[in-house]
């Protein structure tokens, strides 16, 4: 959006403002009344005139924010505080408009009134992105400031680091407690403790829809101690301590000796019991252990996805490392499920720290390669992809290899394109079984494509507009991966970087 059209969209003539004044007063009056009479009769009393007056009020607030009229912004907010996060044309808030036009004092005032600085407009930009794009550094610094002052310590850091699916840390892992066997045992029988049941590395979930393919959300089935206590002593059971809930929920039964309440602990259990028998333990309808994790685990909400990423990766490690990789002896599970120690007392793995004793993570680079003209990106497809789907190139980092070198090597191996500068964007745990996807942007220094047919069926340069159309669902020949993948987020990030605000 250009500056002129922005102004035009939010400007009011002084005439129309006079006409609106009485409607606005109606709204002020009506908001006071609403408080007195309660919300129930609100709908009944809301006339169409009042509705349009509310729209006018919002328009005036957005206009004042865009013009930097601090007095009017403050007056309107004192009467109608809810205006602060309301959006107008293309999802723009007052904060975004003030940030766009460089009105520092308005931005400051809106923030002090508790404005949501993380809300995004229809192009997925925050007020911070907008201020940065238009070169209002004093405003982007203000918006980027964190309460702990980390912006000052790391001046180049981006406080709006992309949060990817599977990356939300809902639990406090409390790693120091993993060696406290007494505490762990107490937690196991605590009635507030939450257990997740896994079978063949899939968590038990209940789905909101009968039709599993209809794209409905699924929820983790949560169990209490009483429902799973018979499974705990079984030799094939793997029990992983996941952490304690971060939120501080008051609970009568979770009290320590000194009366301080502790949040519930979470454990994951993987057993060799028959899945159909395990399912009988759940009282919910439509329970299952998903068979295709690549697809089905993407239906969880962000909080539960983060917990599953942790649990599934650790459980997958145990299932693959049953015996000591150093001497082949049997191993035992320790430290709340975060360590496997060899039972052979002469084993080298017991001397010093051995990485084979701890859960493994495989780093993978995933990159959106940008054409030297800046206006096209390189996407490829594997044979197994659905028809029309193209994604970012990706590959495992090899031992002794830096992230940037892995990006250059994998892109050249898979597409024949040479890459120059590489920039890290964000990362994503990908529990299939235990990858860490390291998302980068990379700039090509050659453009001829020659694909490695063993890995890639086809790779192509896609013009920006075609990619944007695909996001809107308006390009039948190109589909990008779903939003839960970092590939999707990298492509979106590139589009957002250059959008015409
Ligand atoms: N979340 C996302 O957006 C996203 C997108 C693409 C890929 N991925 C994941 O990234 C992974 C790696 O991508 P890729 O398949 O293109 O990698 P790649 O190009 O390195 O090729 C994979 C091949 O590398 C070899 N390999 C080397 N080290 C390996 C290891 N530690 N584990 C398994 N195989 C290894 C195997 O022969 C394998 O077939 C995929 O398996 C997939 O799970 C995630
Ligand atoms: Mg690859
Ligand atoms: Mg490869
Ligand atoms: Mg590779
Ligand atoms: Zn050993």
Automatic annotation (TrEMBL):
Q: Which UniProt keywords apply?
A: ANK repeat, Hydrolase, Magnesium, Metal-binding, NAD, NADP, Peroxisome
List, separated by semicolons, the cofactors it needs. Answer: Mg(2+); Zn(2+)
Q: Which reaction does it catalyse?
A: a 5'-end NAD(+)-phospho-ribonucleoside in mRNA + H2O = a 5'-end phospho-adenosine-phospho-ribonucleoside in mRNA + beta-nicotinamide D-ribonucleotide + 2 H(+); NAD(+) + H2O = beta-nicotinamide D-ribonucleotide + AMP + 2 H(+); NADPH + H2O = reduced beta-nicotinamide D-ribonucleotide + adenosine 2',5'-bisphosphate + 2 H(+); NADH + H2O = reduced beta-nicotinamide D-ribonucleotide + AMP + 2 H(+)
Q: What class of enzyme is it?
A: hydrolase
Per the record's keyword annotation, is Plastid included, yes or no? no
Superkingdom, taxonomy of origin: Eukaryota
Entry's EC annotation: 3.6.1.22
Subcellular localization is given as: Cytoplasmic granule; Peroxisome
The ANK repeat boundaries are 90-122
**Segments forming domain Nudix hydrolase:** 359-484
- Quote the InterPro entries the UniProt record gives: Ankyrin_rpt, Ankyrin_rpt-contain_sf, NAD-cap_RNA_hydrolase_NudC, NADH_PPase-like_N, NudC-like_C, NUDIX_hydrolase-like_dom_sf, NUDIX_hydrolase_CS, NUDIX_hydrolase_dom
This entry's Gene Ontology molecular function terms read:
metal ion binding; NADH pyrophosphatase activity
Task: State the GO CC annotations.
Answer: cytosol; peroxisome
What main location does UniProt list? cytoplasm
Give me any GO biological process, just one: NAD+ catabolic process
- According to the record, the residues making up region (Disordered) are 1-20
Subunit structure, per the record? Homodimer. Homodimerization is essential for its catalytic activity and protein stability. Interacts (via ANK repeats) with BLMH.
Family label: Belongs to the Nudix hydrolase family. NudC subfamily.
Query: What's this protein's function?
Result: mRNA decapping enzyme that specifically removes the nicotinamide adenine dinucleotide (NAD) cap from a subset of mRNAs by hydrolyzing the diphosphate linkage to produce nicotinamide mononucleotide (NMN) and 5' monophosphate mRNA. The NAD-cap is present at the 5'-end of some RNAs; in contrast to the canonical N7 methylguanosine (m7G) cap, the NAD cap promotes mRNA decay. Preferentially acts on NAD-capped transcripts in response to nutrient stress. Also acts on free nicotinamide adenine dinucleotide molecules: hydrolyzes NAD(H) into NMN(H) and AMP, and NADPH into NMNH and 2',5'-ADP.
Its recorded name reads: NAD-capped RNA hydrolase NUDT12
What species is this protein from? Perca flavescens (American yellow perch)
Q: What is the lineage of its organism?
A: Eukaryota, Metazoa, Chordata, Craniata, Vertebrata
